Amino acid sequence: MSEKRSDQGMKICIYVVCVFLTILSLFPFWIMFMNATRSTTEIQQHAISFVPSTYLLSNLKILLGKSFDPMVGFMNSLTIAAGSTVLSAYFSTLTAYALVVYEWRLKKPFFSFIMAVMMIPAQVTMIGFYQMVYRIGMTNNLSMLILPAIASPSIVFFMRQYMYPALSMEIIQSARIDGAGEFRIFNTIALPIMKPAIATQAIFSFVSSWNNLFTPLVLLTDQEKYTLPIMVSLLRGDIYKTEYGSVYLGLSMTVLPLIVVYLLLSKYIIAGVALGSVKG
């Protein structure tokens, strides 16, 4: 009886801690959504409120009355994030597939080079990247924020570690004996097996690309090409008056797509991380 009581007490403690951590995680988002419905005066007087106010439409009018269009920024951010996620997930998985399935002389040096590139901060290479983009005349082109996602060393590393225990070489050999081509084997056999890892990395890639402010701020000068994070930063930099309600509304618009993507792909996170890192 004492053991059962101790087990029940342990479970209750675990549940209490989990509920507390859940509330703690959701608290900033709830405050942000509530402040999106409040006026600047209310926010300055009381920064925290757990109930909505009546200024949502007023904040929306202020947001839409700026010199830039938030919906244009939303679509630009969505285009960049979706394109980057698809390219990084597919081509990183393809690179990891080549590192696992094939045997070639420079295999280990190539993987070491990928790991070395992963250690270099993006800010270090930004000057050279901007000079290259400027010389080819594509500084205000969204494709220059999408195409570099093809080379993603961290995703290649994760996919390689996941693929070693998950992908059976016997299946690959059987498909080759049956006459299947290499790309067909990859697309019809390897990709479905890698689905949990792809979904996990797709979440991280989408969030990283969506929240990216530094690179778009360097490359984009045309307001029609601005992303949503750039527009939100411009709201905060108003020299006359900062409308905090509209700032919080812009932040809420920025967060909502991330929540949707997370809810759609969250069931793969635990399986992807567990099989990709622990087994690797």
Q: Would you give an account of this structure?
A:
By secondary structure, the protein is an all-alpha fold. It contains 15 helices and no strands. The chain has a single domain, classed as MetI-like (MetI-like fold, Orthogonal Bundle). It has helices spanning 2-35, 40-45, 56-64, 70-101, 107-118, 122-135, 143-146, 153-166, 169-177, 182-193, 195-211, 214-219, 228-236, 244-265, 269-278. The protein is flat, with a radius of gyration of 24 Å. The two termini are 41 Å apart. The model is unreliable at 276-280 (pLDDT under 50).
Number of helices: 15
Please state the structural category: mainly alpha
The backbone outline, from C-alpha atoms, is flat
Radius of gyration (CA) equals: 24 Å
Give the amount of beta strand, in percent: under 5%
Say what the CATH topology is.
MetI-like fold
Gap between N and C termini, in Å? 41 Å
Which superfamily, in CATH terms, is the homologous superfamily?
MetI-like
Number of strands: 0
Number of domains: 1
Architecture, according to CATH? Orthogonal Bundle
The main pleated sheet reads as:
none
Detail the poorly predicted runs.
Answer: 276-280
CATH class call: Mainly Alpha
SSE order: HHHHHHHHHHHHHHH
* Average predicted local confidence, pLDDT: 83
Determine the fraction of residues in helical runs and give it as a percent range. Answer: over 70%
List the keywords:
280 residues; mainly alpha; MetI-like fold; 75% helix; 0% strand
